[in-house]
Amino acid sequence: MEQATKRYQSITESTGFMLAVTTLGGFLNSYTYATRDGVFANMHTGNMTRLGISLADGAWAEAGTYLAAIVAAILGALFCEGMKRRTAGRGFGNWQRNLLAVQFVLLFAAGLIPSGWQNLLVTCAFSFLAESLLAMFGKWEGRGHSVTICTGNLRNFGQYLYPVIFERTPEALRTAGLYGLLVASFAFGAGVGIPICRALGTYAAWVGCAVLAVLFLAIRREDRAN
Question: Which end of the chain is less enclosed by CB atoms within 10 A, N or C?
């Protein structure tokens, strides 16, 4: 326990917690892909590219779809910052728990909405949710980590491999190994999400609710212990 305390300041930076959140990030992507017209909830580099191409082609309706997802992501980060600054000590007593509760409601509601013309609304809600998760949980043992996007994580993993290859210290091996596991957990969440979504349809969103509930309880337990 003493060694673990030195590695992270909060449970939200622990390996187990970050594995759960990153797996959820992959799951959110597979959910919108499998149940909401093959759209990814949080691939905004692609959405920005498609927005530019759509505008160049004069495909205004298509451009509006991508723009809506991008705006929803921005609002998710904005909302997260507002919760952090204005809800500390209110609601559930911790701004992260307050935000997790909001995200739980969004996911639960998504499970009740059938696939159809409403898919754009649900995709935007998931984009909002994913970006707020990204803004809320950004560190693993004091190091930067993105729970809903992969490009920066692949760069970090490559950088952590350097000391493994050239220095070969136990700490370098541990860091690279665990971070590689974090990176892979996103793909794992996406891969597991597909059969779950095929079996449960839109109700698969409630699996994400279960993960959010576990995260909520983990933070609550730490808060009570402190």
Answer: N
CA distances (Å), origin 168, targets 160, 161, 175, 184: 11, 10, 11, 22
Return averaged pLDDT per consecutive 10 residues of the chain, 226 residues in all: 58 95 94 87 84 92 88 94 85 89 96 91 93 93 90 92 91 94 95 96 96 96 86
- State the Cα–Cα distance between residues 166 and 121, nearest whole angstrom: 49
> 3-class SS at 183?
helix
Q: How far apart, in Å, are the Cα atoms of 4 and each of 10, 13, 129, 214?
A: 10, 11, 30, 20
pTM of the model: 0.90
Helix boundaries (H) for the chain: 2-7, 15-35, 44-57, 60-86, 95-112, 119-136, 151-166, 170-200, 205-225
The CA-CA-CA angle for residues 74, 25, 46, to 5°, reads 55
Longest dimension (CA), the chain: 60
**Cross-strand partners of 144:** 139
